[in-house]
Amino acid sequence: MRIVVCLKPVPDTAARIKVHKDGTRVDPEGVKFVLGPYDARTIAKAIELRGAAGGGNEVVAISAGAASGEAEAKKRIKDALALGADRGVFIADPTPENRDPLATAKALAAAIKGLDGFDLVFCGRQAVDDQALSVGPMLATLLGVPCVTDAVGMEVQGSTARVRRAAEGRTEVVEVQLPAVITGQRDLADEQYPKLKEILAAGKKPIADFKFDWPATPAYHVVSLSPPPEPIAGKIVGKGPEAVPELFKLLQSEAKVLTF
Amino acid sequence: MSDREPFFTEQHDMFRAMVRQFVETELAPHAEEWEEAELFPREVFKKAGDAGLLGINYDEAYGGTGLDYWYTVIRTEEYVRSRCAGVNMALLVQSDMATPIIHDLGTEEQKQEFLVPAIKGDKIAALGVSEPGAGSDVVSLRTTARRDGGDYVINGSKTFITNGTRADFITLIVKTDPDKTHQGVSVVLVPGDAPGLTVGRKLKKLGNKASDTAELHFDNVRIPQRYLVGEEGHGFYYLMHNFQGERLVAAIGAVAGAQQLIEDALKYGEQRQAFGKPIIKFQTWRHEFAQHLTEVEAARRLAYFAADLFGRKVPCVREVSMAKLFCAELANKVADRCLQFHGGWGYMDEYTVSRAWRDARLVTIGGGTSEVMREIISKLSF
């Protein structure tokens, strides 16, 4: 079984995000990039489904050029290798700014088609920076395979996957023929951390460069990007029940969230 | 390799991220509970062993990874994020205090019996040096190991022994010739279940509460002579060398702890208002924290200098002693001032600064006091 995991480096949630001077994207300067939380879960699930390495099954980690730049993207592929993926593929992108999800899905599809077959493709349900939630379904369409979104659990039996997915207010269990694209929720698997020996082994695993002819113009582009308003400094008004009258008063008079 | 920290490669950075994740997943969420219980679960050693944190510099043949000392620096720095110095100390005793002598000087049999399971986290290790009447003054130790046939018979008491209540073995410093001074000291390995070895009591402490600290009594404890580490009568020199690793991780941990205290305090200072503005906006505190940050940076450079020498096996007793002295004293000063910055809340246990203040107090004492560090530095300097 060949399982492909698509990764995107995203800014650390603790990073101080600034809008780039061109006004349309996050300024990557000085930002720490990490594996997205959904990607981390899909890697863990892929490793679990593969079982022990070397049994004829493999996990391939793929990342298409990202705003973080090539070095950061390759580091995130190495993170996946340290978590147990067998090899990596990197798709360089000379102009990652304004890259739209369709172009990313096309690049990933081209690289996956070049793999000599696949059984499962995992994407995180969303990249926590752009939050487009579209690459996974687009990728499935381009590959001509079904897509199950928002998976919170799954097992594979032969050429069928039984997937639990989080639908609004309920959990659905669906069966899907493989190959298929699955987008994962946080509950898909527990996030793992690598062991020191796996970090050392990751340095010896291959990362292939895949060349893709990116579209010259994006299908859509960001016109402007605005940061959220500055948060107002919090105020500690006291502790315990004695603080309630003052809190109540401020919620009425200052925050104006209580109107009675 | 970073432009600012040329010691650290991309692989070092990956390791740092991994240790951070380990600490934030396995240690930090339990800090309160373990402090309250004054103990943490045995399985933490196993988890640290599985992650590869207990044998970083040790030979691969024994389950280690044979990596450079910067990995040890990183691991020690990241441990402080647990905000639970007790568990950090217990893990450091396991990897950097009780086992280096076995790795460096032990027989193959000793390594298989003690080092391999310690690296895996299957056996808990303790280092037995201090006694009720002697600590830094190692020559005055009174615990004896007397030859008797093919055995040693051990009598005496040890105190302040981290991991002591549940150690599976103790790397024990003894007098094999009580009439001699330095040449009378030896190192032996004592299984925790050896008949005649008893845990006197679990000591109550000011800080580092999550770790157990014990008094140990040896009443005609019999061990085979094959448990002697290295040569008889050479223990003082082995221990002095061993102290360098212990003091270095203490210095590195002290700096990282001080840095974290400052970062926590700055976050508090942005949120806490007084007289209509965040307290960090008051110049008196802004300048004070600028001073702390400067001194912490200077301390880190000294610790890194010592770590570089130590990692390259360049003689560095003077530099390690300087780092231990300076970083430990600074950590206490920073902890005290960060507590002050928190005002009344700093005196309460609502914020972790009070715990850090208590925990920091150990670092100018354990592994050799600041006074002993000054004596070593002066002896080696003039």
Question: CATH superfamily of the largest domain in chain B, called what?
Answer: Butyryl-CoA Dehydrogenase, subunit A, domain 3
CATH top level of the largest domain in chain A is Alpha Beta
- Report the structural category of chain A: alpha/beta
**Largest sheet composition of chain B:** 4 strands, mixed
CATH level-four homologous superfamily name of the largest domain in chain A:
HUPs
Number of strands of chain A: 11
Can you tell me the overall shape of chain A? globular
Low-confidence runs of at least 5 consecutive residues of chain B:
none
What is Rg of chain B?
Answer: 21 Å
| Architecture (CATH level 2) name of the largest domain in chain B | Up-down Bundle
Structure write-up:
The complex is a heterodimer of chains A (260) and B (382). With 260 residues, chain A is an alpha/beta fold. Chain A has two domains: 2-209, HUPs (Rossmann fold), CATH 3.40.50.620; 231-260, no CATH class. Helices cover 25% and strands 25% of the residues of chain A. In chain A, strand 8 (160-167) and strand 9 form a beta hairpin. Chain B is α+β, with helices and mostly antiparallel strands and 382 residues long. Chain B has three domains: 10-120, Orthogonal Bundle (Butyryl-Coa Dehydrogenase, subunit A, domain 1); 125-233, Butyryl-CoA Dehydrogenase, subunit A, domain 2; 236-381, Butyryl-CoA Dehydrogenase, subunit A, domain 3 (Up-down Bundle). Helices cover 51% and strands 15% of the residues of chain B. Chain B contains 13 helices and ten strands. In chain B, the strands form three sheets. A four-stranded mixed sheet of chain B has the order 1-4-5-8. A four-stranded antiparallel sheet of chain B has the order 2-3-7-6, covered by helices on one side. The longest helix of chain B has 37 residues, at 235-271. In chain B, 51% of the residues are buried. Chain A binds chain B through residues 34, 75, 78-79, 82, 191, 193-197, 199-200, 202-203, 233-236, and chain B through 10-11, 13-15, 17-18, 21-22, 25, 50-53, 56, 65, 67, 71, 270-273, 278.
